[in-house]
Amino acid sequence: KAGVTQTPRYLIKTRGQQVTLSCSPISGHRSVSWYQQTPGQGLQFLFEYFSETQRNKGNFPGRFSGRQFSNSRSEMNVSTLELGDSALYLCASSLDTEPGAEAFFGQGTRLTVV
Amino acid sequence: KNQVEQSPQSLIILEGKNCTLQCNYTVSPFSNLRWYKQDTGRGPVSLTIMTFSENTKSNGRYTATLDADTKQSSLHITASQLSDSASYICVVSTRGSTLGRLYFGRGTQLTVWP
Questions:
Q1: Do A107 and B43 touch (CB under 8 A)?
Q2: A20-A22-A28 Cα angle (round to 5)
Q3: Chain A residues touching residue B97 (CB < 8 angstroms)
Q4: Quick one: how far is CA B73 from the chain centroid?
């Protein structure tokens, strides 16, 4: 059974550009969550999708957006990139959104903004 | 304020030795607590997940304990191996919310020396 797949693994962008990251959850999983990980802040919750609907959102500016498709694949978009957006972006998938559900993480996309 | 604090921030031990990592949380209402292992540049991998009623849970050489009264958890690693070198992250989720609303500690960076 394939795990959570994130693409691309590495990305270099310049300030002001926009970027789209992709996450394919484990087959059968309908919930996808996104997190930003930086050395200074650790893992921070961005948003959560379930059946194409955003269920929860963290405290990030509107430049960060996402969506989920009917096949549960999810994309995250960051517009007008800033240097501080450089981070490892992780997505996690689970069967449902219950607090006790097991969450499986992808390998992450390492975004560097220069 | 919902917070998860981990200690120590970093730890160096010799191969074969045991160690204990600590996690204190103020997250409420509590649903479950998880320990994840994250190798450098990779996504976190679940080690254990414990609910309110569970005091101890083991996964091979990893044993997690939970004291819901004092809101403390520990992760004990026995007979450490070089492959145990990683960041160990304590994660707490709340009742009444969805899976995505996870609260992360900043992790303990464990280095095992030969």
A1: yes
A2: 155
A3: 56, 99
A4: 7
CB–CB of A73/A91 below 8 Å?
A: no
Question: Tens digits of per-residue pLDDT, A23-41?
Answer: 999 999 999 999 999 987 8
Residue partners of A21: CB distance under 8 A and separation at least 6: A6, A7, A8, A11, A75, A76, A77, A78, A89, A91, A109, A111
Place of tokens 């989920």: A68
Residue B87, φ and ψ in degrees, nearest 5: -100, 135
Angle, vertex CA A93, rays to CA B72 and CA A45, nearest 5: 55
CB of A112 closer than 8 Å to CB of A11: yes
Q: Helix (H) and strand (E) counts for chain A?
A: 0, 11
Residue A92 one-letter amino acid: A
Asked if B43's CB is within 8 angstroms of A108's CB, the reply is yes
| pLDDT score of A37 | 94
pLDDT band of residue A80 (cuts 50, 70, 90) is: very high
Rounded Cα gap, residues B99 and B101, in angstroms: 5
Q: Which spans in chain A are helix H?
A: none
Q: How far apart are CA B112 and CA B85, in angstroms?
A: 5
Using CB atoms within 10 A of its CB, is residue B93 exposed (0-12), middle (13-18) or buried (19+)? Answer: buried
Nearest alpha carbon to residue B101 among A53, A103, A88: A103
CB atoms within 10 A of CB A17: 11
